[in-house]
Amino acid sequence: MMLKNSLISKIAAGVFVLVGVGAVLYETGNSNSEDLLSQDTSFVSQPKKRSPKRSDCNIFQAEFDRDYSRTSLTATGKFTEIKERFWTKEEFYKELQKEDASEKEKLRNSIETACNRDGKKAFVSWEKKRLNNDSYKDGWEYKETMNDNNKDWLTNKDTVVPEHLKPENWTD
Known about the structure:
With 172 residues, the chain is of the alpha+beta class. The chain has a domain of 112 residues. The protein has a four-stranded mixed sheet with strand order 2-1-3-4. Helix 2 runs antiparallel to helix 3. The radius of gyration is 29 Å and the shape is elongated.
């Protein structure tokens, strides 16, 4: 009797295993998703990042930081990092239309002025801006002192710049 019970339990276990394997094979065969092992994840298959064109006026998003001097009680600003995101002037204007910015026209004029300079580029940051009623709102900020022609943030050794945004990688 003992032998008969162990044989039946082995057969039952075998049936459950076969049913499980069959279910897995059935699901794998009917799956609409691509087989994960057949996906090409090589470096070559990754989309190439867009580089700025020299002929366009390019607008770059940058991280802004302030250094405070305790001795002179002054603050100096700097861009610490250029973000992956950038726009042509026209693309940035479209982006600006999506925002509920109270100073859109002032920002457009500042961008236009920067684009008419030799460098044909502007730097903006996404910051909390203080409103009249002491509340705050996120928005695009253009700082004139950070956009003068004397400072090229894309070649500054203290600013982190993605490789494809460095001027030597721009296209014509």
